[in-house]
Amino acid sequence: MKSLILVSFVILFAGNSDDVLNGTWSMRLSHNAGEAQMTFRYRDSWNSSFSIALSELKGFQKTGQGSTTSEAFAIEREAGDISLKGEFDGRDGYGQFTFRRNDRFTHDLVALGVSQPEIEEQFSLALHDIGLEYVREINSLGYTHLAIDELISMAIHDVDPAYIRGLKDAGFTKLPVDDLVSMKIHDVTLEFVRELRKLGYAALTPDDLVSMCIHGATTDYVRDLQNLGYRDIPPDDLVSMLIHEVTVDFVKNLRSLGYKDVPPDAMVSMSIHGVDNEFLRALSSLGYDAVPPDDLVSMRIHSVTPEYIRGLKDLGMKHLSPDDLVSMSIHGVTVSWVKHLRDKGFEHLDADRLVDMRIHGWGD
After folding, report:
1. Coil, helix or strand for 276?
2. H-helix segments, the chain
3. Using an 8 Å Cβ cutoff, are 264 and 246 in contact?
4. CA distances (Å), 20 to each of 2, 107, 152, 184, 238, in order?
């Protein structure tokens, strides 16, 4: 079944009978032998483009060589036949088409519980090569009384019976069509679902799986985190970690510096605010080991840099807590201002006193 890209769709195809639809086509022969890129158009408001094997074009003779030639050929589908006439100039062809619906197909389709298709809907069924056997198999899996657009959406995104059965075996029964299509669009494979179940993720929703795939979650990522002690991380946390670049190496670096078992949300906050390996090593060299993650983030947010800490140490302030440093930075207690106070004879001032003096304008 060919994968088609529907650019737009109109409800009414004026100027066509109930059983016939007319429009234009264009085609470019591929450099790969035996294929072409084909586009069908109706006025300016509808078109559909897809790759097609030349073997599907009954009566087609063009080889892509020589001067301009006329062509008449057809695409035969269960839903109806598409007759094409036109000209080729080199590898490019263009012309008009006529689609005639297969009334027997229409009758059988409705008998299978699918809604009665309009002529343009049946034309789409033909373009997408959606046959009755596909509908029967889908029906047998519980997908009955489908609307035409649901049927087309499932078919063009390769929601096939094997995929539905595989999901059922993994615990996903009678998923809505929208979920099935979304999972296929975002490459939620059966292998991905099965491997996640083996890793303990047996209660994921379709939205969880789609979100994980969108943001690059892999079973290797989950497995590596588990090997580092992070088991049963909720899917939302996994996605947040990926969005904010909490990589496996990031976690390993934290562990190497003594930060073990840091909660996922704390690691996300650390990554967002630049609490990286360089920052942690610099703090460690200044005597700030095992600072709680919340304090590390607060220090980063309020510009408590290693240079700031080092400058205060050089002025004799050697045992300031993270809270002291943050409070001082927030209130504008700079290294140069403390040095200015020292030069004026103010010595042995602690953090609270310096903050109080800064708030009340001392030493300005």
Report:
1. coil
2. 103-111, 119-127, 132-140, 148-156, 161-169, 177-185, 190-198, 206-214, 219-227, 235-243, 248-256, 264-272, 277-285, 293-301, 306-314, 322-330, 335-343, 351-359
3. yes
4. 23, 16, 20, 33, 52
> What is the C-alpha separation between 37 and 296, in angstroms, rounded?
57
9 against 278, higher pLDDT? 278
pLDDT value of residue 274: 95
* Band (64; pLDDT cuts 50, 70, 90): low
Number of residues that this document lists for the chain: 364
> 10 in helix, strand or coil?
coil
**Is the pLDDT score of 14 beyond 70?**
no
Closest CA to 40 of 81, 100, 96: 96
pTM: 0.82
Q: Is the dihedral of CA 219, 224, 225, 229 positive or negative?
A: positive
Q: Which residues does residue 69 pair with via DSSP β-bridges, in sequence order?
A: 88
Range 147-175 average pLDDT:
95
- Determine the Cα–Cα distance for residues 41 and 21; give it in Å rounded to an integer: 11
Q: Band the pLDDT of 34: cuts 50, 70, 90.
A: confident
Paired strand residues for 232: none
Distance of alpha carbon 335 from alpha carbon 234, whole angstroms:
44
Pairing of strands 5-8, 46-53: antiparallel
Q: How far apart are CA 349 and CA 355, in angstroms?
A: 10
Distance CA 13, CA 18 (A): 10
* Integer Cα distance of 141 and 67 in angstroms: 52
Q: How many CA atoms lie within 13 A of 169 on its CB side?
A: 10
Residues 6, 353: Cα–Cα separation, whole Å: 70
Tokens representing 125? 């069924």
Measured CA to CA, the distance from residue 231 to residue 181 in angstroms comes to: 30
Cα separation, 333 vs 327, whole angstroms: 9
